[in-house]
Amino acid sequence: MSEWPAAGTGRVVIASANAEAQVAADLPVPLAGHLNNVGVTSRRDTGSGAFNVWGNSFAAEHLPGAGPVVVDGVSFDYPAAGTGEPDNVRCEGQLVEVPPSAYDWLYLLAAAERRAEDEVALHFEDGAVDFETLRISDFWASEAAFGERVAFESPVMHYPRHVQPRVSALQWIQRVPVTRRATLEAIRLPRNVAIHVFALTLRMRPEAGR
Amino acid sequence: MSTLASEVHVRQWYRDPLSCLQSTLATVLLGAGVEPLPVLGLAWEFLFKPGDVRREEFYYPCRFEGDVARSLAPYHPIRSSWWSPAPGEDPLAELARRVEDGELPVAGVDNYHLPFRPAFRDVHAAHLVVVYAIDRERDEVGVSDAQPPAFRGSIPTEDFLAAWASPNRADAEDAFFSDSEIGRRCLSVEIEGPIAPLDPVRLEAALAENLARFGAGGWSGLAGLRRYLDDLSARAFAGERRPLEELYPFGWGMQAQTYLHGELLREVGADWSFPELAEAGRAVQEVASAWTGLRMTGAHALAAPAAAAAELRRHGNRLRRRYETALERVAQAVESL
Question: Which of A116, A142, A164 lies nearest to residue B292, judging by beta carbons?
């Protein structure tokens, strides 16, 4: 398994772009219909970034390309980024429908504009709803505040008018438990614009589908 | 002492919720051999001062007028005062004298003029750095800044003077930290007596006083928080932009102080094997996280305050509930001490 992305970030980044490494129990959830924010820019177009209120953004060259990527043993479908088009979901309470099934974990590639803790609502086929806490650390040169692991780290920060060395930008892999033993149908993301989700994957319960 | 020799004595301390206010004070404390967290994290309060908020990264609503260090660390013999060189005198003379006397002055600066800041020649913003050396021969000033990208080294005197004397004019790129004159302000911090190590008795006394202050009225305590949040959402609903501009710097001070207090309780709870204390610390940290939702909702709503009023109220209610829960846990922890 080759490591992703390029060396020089100063962190052990636990990802692979090897599609063969995809985990069978993982179901990447399409987010294309919910993308509403440009959080990643190319070095030629840093001005289009709007991850935070200052217009900072991640550097596309230090992130994976669009498509399958495995991070910390979890399969994700990473969005196209660095094109000037929306590449992440800035959380405003979007309801994300998922293929109905039994799941154990919700995994996210996410980052926050300052550390944030908020709720996701898990909607089940039988009408039950559970609230679970989503905790995401700051994207700005920070340590993991909530025990997440670093998914991707850029050694530079994009500003609207320049590329800033020595200020890292971090995306985290975080997880949320699905404790109810029922069929999950939809996920309500937090109503919290500080939280940005780049990819979302559900891990099936081992007995699901049997 | 040469600039280089001075540099090795300057230690930096940074956590992601902190502003330059806490990180520069931490450097001053470390310079005196004092660990920052037990000093800067012992007090916890909510205090809003209408009309007082300034567009500066280091704004804090001082309960002791003009003394920000005492306001942040009221349980310790620490005092501070702002000063500026007299008009017409060598602007660096007093600063150099204080540095030579072993002080670590904290200087107000405009990031626009500092070569190591991301905003250099781009955006005006009021910031703080620690000054640890004035090198007349090299025409350099040694400064320390723990905020990313952390810097500790010498910059041309010309750049420092420009940053220190900057009018920090209004900048459309920074609605929160520009339009606040720096005016060669400098904060001198004095540690007037020994800093006693934190123990359960001292902690219990401080927590009891913190809890009592949360019961105060006016614009402080839980009642003050509710009043502030009601006022914020009402004025946003009326289309006022100014309260949202103030929320970002004001909320940063509250968030950073809250984080430090939570971190202190969590750490000593673990170190002293007081699980209730560690749990209280984590609950306080949830308050710090809730400040993020409120601050960022306001920050992104400057163009349309009325449209964000409902979200501000929702985040405000969440913040208030987090305070209430955390205070209950702190009260429980006090009983366990």
Answer: A116
Reading chain B (337 residues) residue by residue, the pLDDT tens digits are 455 556 657 999 999 899 999 999 999 999 999 999 999 999 999 999 999 999 999 999 999 999 999 999 999 999 999 999 998 999 999 999 999 999 999 999 999 999 999 999 999 999 999 999 999 999 999 999 999 999 999 999 999 999 999 999 998 888 899 999 999 999 999 999 999 999 999 999 999 999 999 999 999 999 999 999 999 999 999 999 999 999 999 999 999 999 999 999 999 999 999 999 999 999 999 999 999 999 999 999 999 999 999 999 999 999 999 999 999 999 999 998 8
For the record, the structure tokens of B291 come out as 């400040």
CB A139 within 8 A of CB A166: no
Q: Does B249 touch chain A (CB under 8 A)?
A: no
Q: Where are the domains of chain B?
A: 3-191, 200-336
Q: Compute the Cα dihedral for A114, A119, B232, B236 and give only its sign.
A: positive
Dihedral class, residue B221 (left if φ above 0, else alpha if ψ from -120 to 50, else beta): left
Element (H, E) at B278: helix B275-299
Is the Cβ pair A114, B16 closer than 8 Å?
yes
Domain boundary assignment for chain A: 15-204
Instruction: Spell out the alpha helix ranges (H) of chain A.
Output: none
Query: Which residue in A129, A109, A120, A110 sits closest to A184, CA to CA?
Result: A129
- In chain B, where do the E strands start and end? 78-83, 106-110, 126-135, 140-145, 151-156, 186-191
The complex's ipTM works out to 0.95
The answer, for B78 touching chain A at a CB cutoff of 8 Å, is: no
CATH fold of B3-191 reads: Cathepsin B; Chain A (3.90.70)
